[in-house]
Amino acid sequence: MSHLPPRPLAARRSSPLVGTVRVPGDKSISHRSLMFGALATGTTRIKGLLEGEDVINTARAVTALGALAEKQGDTWIVKGRGVGGLSEPLAPIDFGNSGTGTRLMMGVIAGQPITVTMTGDASLSKRPMRRVIGPLKQMGLQIAEDRETLPLTLTGTDQLLPIVYELPVPSAQVKSAILLAGLHAAGETTVIEKEATRDHTERMLHFFGAEIRTEQKDGKTHITVKGDAELTGRDVTVPGDPSSAAFLVCAALLVPGSDVTVEGVLVNETRTGLYTTLQEMGADVTLTNPREEGGEPIADIRARFSKLKGVIVPAERAPSMIDEYPVLAAVAAFAAGDTVMHGLAELKVKESDRLAATAAGLEVNGVRTAVEGDTLTVHGTGGAVSGGGTVATHLDHRIAMAFLTMGLATEHPVTVDDTAMIATSFPEYLGLMEQLGASFQT
Ligand code: S3P
End-to-end alpha-carbon separation of the chain, Å? Predict the structure, then answer.
């Protein structure tokens, strides 16, 4: 993506946003369904797969490794090769912008006796991989380079050792990479987490037939997977992505007269911290029609324009809303009083340094902020927000969408310097927003 010319766009004050829509499939579950399908025997059929660039890169990656992933009608079909059955690709594999695709695939590659070179775009090539490489090396993965950033050449093995590993940072990607490697090890691999992170890997591995258990010990979660595993191809339905729905919901809260419903959204509690926070701010956000889809809880989310007040967002909540801080910060600009967000260390190593990018984007649009250590404070106006600035997005889709959201309610348009990256996670974003009544200008 990074070689394409930037596509700037401005969001201007919107008339009411009204309507009922669906958002594309959850990104985390989409990546996993392709990879687990590749490691299963037989065929996996996936409905509702997110067709964003990140996930398409994962589909290409599993195909390059010998497990054909292709779309037939409205269904993605993956022909699995079985645990340990993937083959060496003919060329380096490009993971584009995706940290999830890269890190989870490192866990998969660790268990195959093959050599794979992994590459990525300018943003991905800056992101820390040591957090994944460290534990995978303990299990037996070899890395040609003495570095922690892409491009990297990995050599896996069919002799992986099981480990017990306590996560130094709350990261579902690291947890998942180790569990995926653990499927291939001789014996049980345990990941210990102090703070719960999204549990889609645990749920889906169980669904595909792996022996996996979760226990609470001394206030920590121990997740153990049995090695020499056998997975069986399954039919998967991917629920709507709550991290994408967030942009529609937040826009509805900010634009007077709005009333938006997003149907069929994943509401797994490891993902819903934003919605809890918005309700604490006084937002009229309701989760209705709760049901289950593909082993995950889903609901319809309705949001109406609301007068908001600033709140303190505790650090413990960060893992359940880690991708939502930029848009929460944009919303907080309009709330009465300060919104204080603690525990944001991990925000600094996302597709961009999101802590810095968010604060800078707010400041350039007339919103006062303070960053102290891992805490971001947004001084909300409780009324009008100036806007009028141009936001640097740093190849980060969520920075782009967060500030377009903000511009729908500011006095002057908010410009983002590039919208091309939105296609990595939410290619339908601009179209859906226009369908609800938003207007953007190039
Ligand atoms: C993801 C985990 C999170 C999140 C990312 C998707 C996943 O990253 O930010 O968008 O699918 O496991 P970390 O594991 O780095 O927190």
Answer: 19
